[in-house]
Specification:
With 193 residues, the protein is mainly alpha-helical. Among the domains are: 36 residues; 47 residues. It contains 4 helices and no strands. The N and C termini lie far apart (168 Å).
């Protein structure tokens, strides 16, 4: 193998008068045993480049665009999921705060209702006591009035009985002056009792 490389190196030296022609000959000598033909190799390289360009342009480029779009969708979906997690956490915090506020307001309303009920019960009790007192006073006033009326009636009745008894005892009708005197005396006796 070293023997084949030496002619190549000798041909590549600047001392040789026909360096170019001997270089091509040297290349043909090296590639000749492998069955490689330079014209065919160049044509195959050009064909490979054309096929590679067409495959890239119509196959790989579209595939890469699809992969990029898919990656963007996945990234967008992950970002959306993270945003939803954050919103869910925020919503749970807000919900807990609303429940806490509602609980505090409920306790406050219950306390106010109890206070109102106590005040109302106290007011009703006071009103009932006042009404009972008013009723008692009215009853006492009515009793006093009735007593006065009964005493007045009793005085008249006693005066009538005194006059009637005096008429029978004396056997005559009393004069108006005598009747007034007996009535006054009976009324005075009744007032003492």
């Amino acid at each position: 193998m070293h023997s084949e490389i030496l002619p190549l190196l000798a041909a590549a030296t600047p001392d040789a008068p026909s360096a170019m022609s001997s270089g091509i000959d040297a290349i043909q000598q090296v590639v000749g045993p492998f069955g490689v033909k330079p014209g065919l190799l160049i044509a195959q390289i050009i064909n490979f480049c054309v096929v590679a360009f067409v495959v890239y342009q119509f196959g790989i480029k579209g595939l890469l665009a699809t992969v990029d779009d898919r990656n963007k969708q996945i990234a967008s979906g992950l970002q959306y999921a993270e945003e939803m997690k954050k919103k869910l956490a925020d919503t749970e915090v807000q919900q807990a705060e609303v429940l806490k506020q509602a609980s505090l307001e409920g306790k406050k309303v219950i306390a106010e209702a109890r206070d109102t009920a106590k005040a109302l019960a106290e007011k009703v009790s006071q009103d009932a006591a006042r009404q009972a007192e008013d009723t008692l006073k009215k009853g006492q006033a009515a009793i006093a009035l009735e007593r006065q009326q009964m005493l007045g009636d009793l005085r008249r009745e006693v005066a009538t009985l005194v006059v009637s008894t005096a008429n029978r005892v004396l056997g005559r009708d009393l004069t108006a002056e005598e009747r007034a005197r007996y009535n006054a005396s009976a009324a005075q006796d009744l007032s003492k009792n």
